[in-house]
Amino acid sequence: MCGRYSFITPAPSAEARFEAVFAEPAPLRYNAAPSQQLPVITNAAPDRVQLLRWGLVPAWSRDPGGGPKPINARAETLADKPSFRLLLARRRCLVLADGFYEWQATPAGKVPHRILLRNEQPFAFAGLWDEWVDRATGELHPTFTIITTEPNELMAGIHNRMPVILPDRAAELAWLDDDQKMAAHQQQLQPFAATAMQAYVISKRVNSPANNDAAVLAAAE
Question: Whole-prediction pTM value?
Fold first, then answer.
C-alpha cells in the first residue's frame, strides 16, 4: 500500500511541471498522511491544482463519518468492483508527489524507506476521486485514493505493493483524457521502471504525521 508520501515542490515549479494553477495555497507536505487535504489534478479540471482529502468517500455513501475510506485501490481489481470501475471511467486524477515512504519488515522491526525518482523530480500517482454531497447544506466534499500495483525490482525488496507512478507528461495527459477508453486507462496502471528510482533508509520520525519537516527526509545514521 501507499500510506505516506511527500510533496514539497514549490508552487511555481509545480505549476510549470504539471501545466496547472493552484486554486488555493497548499502547505508543504514532508509527511503527507490520510485525511489531509492534498494537491490533486482531476480530469474535470485539468488546468487546476485542487486540495482534496485523502481517503475516498464515494458519492453514494450515506454516512461519510462511518464506513471505510480507502486510501489505496488495487489496479488489478478496479474493473471488478462497481464503485471503482465507475470512477475509472469517469473520475481519474493526478496525485502530485515527489517521494513516498514504505516500511520494510525485518527481524528487528519495520524499517522506513524514502523512495523517489533518480532525478529527484516531482511526479504524479494515478488516482481516483469522487465527491460526496451534504444534502443538508449542499456542500461538496471531494476525496481521492491512490492506485497501487505490483512492485518493481527496487520495491520488491521493501514491500509487496507500490503506487502507480505515471511515467511521463504524455501518460499524465492520457490518464486525464475522457476520450480514452477505460481499457486504455487500465493498461496504464503498470509498475514504474526500477532503474529510474532510488530508495534509502530514513529515521522513524516519519512514523508520526505530526513530524512534517525536512528532518523526515534525512537518511538514517
Answer: 0.96
Q: Which of 2, 93, 139, 153 is catalytic?
A: 2
Residues 6+ apart with CB under 8 A from 123: 97, 98, 117, 165, 166
Quick one: which of 100, 97, 73 has its CA closest to 3?
A: 100
C-alpha cell at 114: 524514502
Residue-wise pLDDT tens digits, 170-218: 999 999 999 999 999 999 999 999 999 999 999 999 999 999 999 999 9
User: Which of 19, 76, 102, 139 is an active site residue?
Assistant: 102
Residues 6+ apart with CB under 8 A from 26: 7, 11, 38, 39, 49, 51
26 with 10: CB under 8 angstroms?
A: no
- Domains of the chain listed by start with CATH number: 5-217 (3.90.1680.10)
User: Is 131 among the catalytic positions?
Assistant: no
Tens digit of each residue's pLDDT (9 = 90 or more) over 87-120: 999 999 999 999 999 999 999 899 999 999 999 9
Cα angle: 8, vertex 188, 168; to 5 degrees: 45
Is the pLDDT assigned to residue 62 strictly greater than 90? no
102 is catalytic: yes
Residue in 206, 214, 192, 6 with CA at minimum distance from that of residue 110:
206
How many residues belong to the chain? 221
- CB of 99 within 8 A of CB of 217? yes
